[in-house]
Amino acid sequence: MRRTSKLTRVAVGVASIALAATACGGTSSDSGSDDGGDTKGLAIAYDIGGKGDQSFNDAAYAGLQKAQKEFKYKTADIEPTEGETNADKEQRLASLAKQGYNPVIGVGFAYGPAMEAVAKKYPDTTFGIVDSVVEGDNVASLVFAEEQASYLAGVAAAKATKSNTVGFIGGVDIPLIHKFEAGYKQGVQDTSGGKVKVLSQYLTQTAEEGGFSSPDKGKAAAEGQIEKNADVLYQAAGLSGQGVIEAAAKAKVWAIGVDSDQYEQAALSSYKGYILTSALKDVGGAVYALAKSVEDGKPLTGTQTFDLKVNGVGLSESNPEFAKIPGLADAVAKAKEGIIDGSIKVKTE
């Protein structure tokens, strides 16, 4: 029987864990404890874009780093390959399980079919999948209320805009990214009373076309929205979002980051003055929480939901300019309170 629960927080906060992520890409790695023991722990398989995206995948890696440091065991993080198939993903997950890693986590919804197949073959291994729900007695589905964080981003955008035009750029036109768009639009409209226009654009129809891994596509889309007077751009586009941030900084308009606190990412430091805030998603905390549950002998399974109530999503305030825009911080705080107490119902599509 699957357990569905709203996870009690055992992980670190959304803002702090993201900062532990490395700022550079790399090949797959295997890091071990100083004692040279054979114990193998957490392994993660990256989504499109891989390590170094300053966002989604790097947040997962931060969770792995925290688990490795705390539990002193061997870990593995494996990069995706270009144009890979579900069979490739299945082979990757199976290989990690066969080697004895536990838990094994697929970072991203694309691992769904592979996870479902592999979990059945390795019933003694706990599997986790980020951003998707997979049935299985030994599978934890780590899902987030992205729409809630995006609503707060919309509130911030409505308060920050001077042109009364803001933008949303999604990496791929899929239901998961629709949640980001829906929450953002609602936050903008509720805050502005419908006075602020939202321009929306998706980079590609499928992930295989590079919507999450093409900074050049993100940059071009951002430049197009800026030409239409958008002065705040929110991106939910993985590695492609770096191009959005670059274009915003060049035009001296605001960008809103996603997943990790992108204001604090070293690789984006030259643009940080124009990263107003980031819609946070504690992927690292979720990864760590699953690893801890296995280490404690009580593996999480079923759907684990990370929302505002458990600090699983949020909005960063790292940029000092965030506090200087009249009414912005108060409006965000009020919206957060409303979402938590249920007086604000955030749309998902």
Describe this structure in words.
The protein is 37% helix and 21% strand. It is built from 10 helices and 14 strands. The strands form 2 sheets. An 8-stranded mixed β-sheet has the order 1-13-7-6-5-3-4-2, with helices on both faces. A 6-stranded mixed β-sheet has the order 9-8-10-11-12-14, sandwiched between helices. β8 (165-172), α6 and β9 form a beta-alpha-beta unit. Residues 1-29 and 31-37 have low confidence and may be disordered.
Number of helices: 10
Helix-strand pattern, N to C? EHEEHEHEHEEHEHEHEHEEHEEH
**Count of distinct strands:** 14
Q: Please estimate the helix content.
A: 25-40%
- Which structural class fits the helix and strand makeup? alpha/beta
Oligomer: single chain
**End-to-end separation:** 30 Å
- For the biggest β-sheet, the strand order reads 1-13-7-6-5-3-4-2
Low-confidence stretches: 1-29, 31-37
Q: What can be said about the biggest beta sheet?
A: 8 strands, mixed
Global geometry: globular
Question: How much of the residues is beta strand, in percent?
Answer: 15-25%
Radius of gyration: 19 Å
Mean pLDDT over the full residue set: 90
How is the topology of this model organized?
Layout: E1 4-6, H1 14-18, E2 29-31, E3 40-45, H2 56-71, E4 74-78, H3 86-98, E5 104-107, H4 112-121, E6 127-130, E7 139-144, H5 146-160, E8 165-172, H6 175-192, E9 197-204, H7 215-227, E10 232-236, H8 241-251, E11 254-259, E12 275-281, H9 283-295, E13 302-306, E14 313-315, H10 328-341
Parallel strand pairs: 1-13, 3-4, 3-5, 5-6, 6-7, 7-13, 8-9, 8-10, 10-11, 11-12
Antiparallel strand pairs: 2-4, 12-14
